[in-house]
Each structure stands twice: as structure tokens, then as C-alpha cells.
Automatic annotation (TrEMBL):
The keyword Nuclease is assigned to this record: no
Signal peptide: 1-34
The keyword Signal belongs to this UniProt entry's keyword annotation: yes
GO biological process: polysaccharide catabolic process
GO MF assignments: lyase activity
InterPro entries assigned: PbH1, Pectin_lyas_fold, Pectin_lyase_fold/virulence, RHGA/B-epi-like_pectate_lyase
Swiss-Prot/TrEMBL keywords: Carbohydrate metabolism, Lyase, Polysaccharide degradation, Repeat, Signal
Coiled coil: none
Every Rhamnogalacturonase A/B/Epimerase-like pectate lyase domain range: 51-236
Protein name stated in the entry: Pectate lyase superfamily protein
SUPFAM superfamilies with a match to the protein in the record: Pectin lyase-like
Length: 373
């Protein structure tokens, strides 16, 4: 049987309303057990104590190394947790040492606070480390890496925030930029002899831009919710994606990207690799990426619903390799493949916008607006 016959395929000129798309989404691929696991403002258990980094010796003058003061403020919190307060200022952090956060704590940056990494030559670093923690919140201000002043030329693992083996993490209303690797990295940590995935991570109103490798990397994890966030302008070393979900055999399950902007990246807007399952991308914009708007390489059980894919260098949506059980429904996918076709031309085949390999299976295409329709 041909791939065209195996694929449930229908195209209409005008997308249905997003509300209808949401109903269709629930009917297509989302298991009942996963319904509404996400929350843009999750409830956390945070202690009542408060410590100001200035009281621990931070100067915030853009010159002094404030790493020890930040760590002292974290360590001063009681076992019940609390809030570390970062007032306005420019705080320099040694990312090779890292600031290690604790469970049941909030890192509260003033909107006028900048935390900058001190220049180094290392292949890898972490500015804020969340390893094997629970109930952690990071909010406010800016976290700025040192890619502009970086001395070395190798490596790709310099992170602004690393969430590994941690659960119930809420990062919101913050900007992360200029990291040697990824703005945010989500993945595993070891606890004794056990490898622990990150879980129940929410990113809301996060802006991650001009990082060298990725705006956000999701490796083995479960229940990651990205909403109202922006991942733009990643450039420097491959993959250079807005968001890259690449978990390996440990897998990444239940990832939802909603009302977010993954645009103007040198690589793809979104990459989804093998062992990614139960992924929803809803109401988001993926445009002007040099690669695909969204590319699946063997991801499974996914839904792309009500999004805009526009003027990407390759197809707006690419479903490749053994991708299966994927629904692409009620999206606007127009004027893509700009590396080969003028973005103002209405000509070209449907694969200009939507490319589905013959090796995929159980693909639903419905209600998508393509170029020239």
C-alpha cells in the first residue's frame, strides 16, 4: 500500500478554529492518563525564610566575583527552604564553580538584576545547578553567559541553568542569553547508582536567545511544559535549534510547547528525535529558521495543532525516518523552503511546506493551510 494511502490526508483551505483543533487533539493521540498534567503556574512548596545576597557580600558592581556570596545565601536557608533575593545590579558568577541551588527554594532576581558569567576557556560550565532537587523556582532578571568573551574555541556545554534529576521546577519571567552551550538544559542526574530523569518542569515567560548551541535542550525527562516563551537566534555550533528534544534510549515523554516562539534560529526551530513520545506543540510560531520549522526524526505520538510555520529555510514541518502516530492539524504552513524558493512565490509543490517521508506511519494531516491555497 502506498504511503499516501496509509496516511489519513485531507487539506482544507481555511484552518478550523483553535478551539475545534483542541477537541480534535484530544481525540487523536493524547492518552487519557496524560490529560491536563500541565499548569502554567504550578504549586510548589517553598520555605518562608529570606536571605539577600547583598547581606552575604555580593556587590553587584559588574566587577567583583559574587559567586561565594550567592552560594552563602543559598546555604544560609534552613532545611525548610526559602527565598534568595537578588536586588538590582550586575553580579559576576564563576560558572566553573556554579551556584548550587537547594530544594524548597526560590531564586528571586529583581527585574533589573543581571547575573553574568565570568569569561573562561572551558568546554563546559553551569551557572545555576539544579541537581537532584525538588520544589525550586527561578524568576526575574537576566542570566547572561560569557560566549562573547569566551577564551576557548572548543566544547558546547556551557549552560545558564541545568535542571538534572530534579522535579517540580518552575522557571519564569526571566531572560537567558549568550551561553557557550544552551540557555537551559533539562536531563538526568545520578542518585547513588540510579539515573533520575528531570520531571514536572515548567517554563513560563522565558526568553532564551543568542546561545551558541540551543535555546533549550531536553534530554531524558517527563512532563515538561513550555508556555508563553521565546527561543530565538541560537547560533554558533550545531544543532543551533530553538528547542532540541534528544533524549536517547531513556526517553522524553509528555512534553507540551504552547503559545511560544521558536524563530530565527540558525538550525531548526524545533527538533524531535527518537525516543520522544507524547509531544504536543500548540498555538506556537516557528518562522525564519534556517532549517525546518519543526523536524521529527523518529519521534512518536505527537500533535502539531494550530501553529504557524512560515518562511523557514527548509519545509515548515518535516516528518522523517520512523516517525509514527503524528497529527499535523489546523496549522498555517506557508512560504517555506526559502533556501530554494522565493518567500514571496506562491509556486512549488506541497512538500515545500510539509514533507512526510515514506518511512513514516499513521500520520494524520488535516485542515492545514499551505502556500497557494
Amino acid at each position: 500500500m502506498s504511503h499516501l494511502l496509509r496516511t489519513r490526508f485531507s487539506l482544507i483551505q481555511k484552518p478550523l478554529a483553535l478551539a475545534a483543533a483542541t477537541l480534535l487533539l484530544s481525540a487523536i493521540a493524547l492518552p487519557a492518563a496524560a490529560t491536563n498534567w500541565w499548569n502554567p503556574t504550578p504549586a510548589l512548596t517553598i520555605g518562608t525564610a529570606s536571605v539577600n545576597v547583598r547581606d552575604k557580600g555580593a556587590l553587584g558592581n559588574g566587577v567583583h566575583d559574587d559567586t561565594a556570596a550567592f552560594q552563602a545565601a543559598v546555604n544560609a536557608l534552613p532545611s525548610t527552604g526559602g527565598t534568595v533575593v537578588v536586588p538590582p545590579g550586575t553580579y559576576m558568577i564563576n560558572a566553573l564553580t556554579s551556584v548550587r541551588l537547594r530544594s524548597k527554594m526560590r531564586l528571586q532576581l529583581d527585574p533589573l538584576a543581571q547575573v553574568k558569567a565570568i569569561a573562561n576557556s572551558s568546554d563546559r560550565y553551569i551557572m545555576f545547578k539544579l541537581w537532584n532537587l525538588n520544589n525550586v523556582e527561578i524568576t526575574g532578571g537576566q542570566i547572561i553567559g560569557e560566549r562573547v568573551a569566551h577564551v576557548g574555541t572548543t566544547g558546547q556545554w556551557g549552560y545558564g541553568v541545568a535542571i538534572q534529576g530534579s522535579s517540580k521546577v518552575f522557571v519564569h519571567d526571566i531572560s537567558i542569553s549568550n551561553c557557550w552551550g544552551d540557555g537551559i538544559f533539562i536531563g538526568t542526574a545520578t542518585s547513588g547508582t540510579t539515573t533520575v530523569k528531570a520531571s514536572d518542569v515548567t517554563l513560563n515567560q522565558v526568553v532564551s536567545t543568542n546561545n551558541r548551541r540551543q535555546g533549550l535542550s531536553i534530554t531524558p525527562a517527563q512532563r515538561v511544559y513550555v508556555v508563553n516563551s521565546t527561543f530565538t537566534g541560537q547560533n554558533g555550533t550545531a544543532p543551533q535549534a530553538g528547542i532540541d528534544i534528544e533524549p536517547g534510549k531513556l526517553g522524553a515523554t509528555y512534553v507540551r510547547i504552547e503559545n511560544s516562539n521558536l524563530s530565527s534560529n540558525v538550525g531548526n526551530g524545533l527538533e524531535m528525535h527518537a525516543y520522544v513520545a507524547n509531544l504536543d506543540v500548540v498555538g506556537s510560531t516557528l518562522k525564519n529558521n534556517h532549517g525546518y520549522g519543526a523536524l521529527s526524526v523518529s519521534a512518536t505520538f505527537g500533535n502539531l495543532v494550530g501553529n504557524t510555520f512560515n518562511q523557514n529555510g527548509l519545509a515548515g514541518v518535516g516528518l522523517n525516518s520512523t516517525t509514527h502516530d503524528f497529527a499535523v492539524v489546523n496549522n498555517s504552513i506557508t512560504f517555506n523552503s526559502t533556501r530554494y524558493v522565493s518567500p514571496t512565490s506562491t509556486k512549488g509543490s506541497a512538500t515545500r511546506d510539509l514533507s512526510v517521508a515514506s518511512t513514516t506511519s499513521n500520520i494524520t494531516l488535516s485542515g492545514n493551510l499551505l502556500t497557494g491555497q
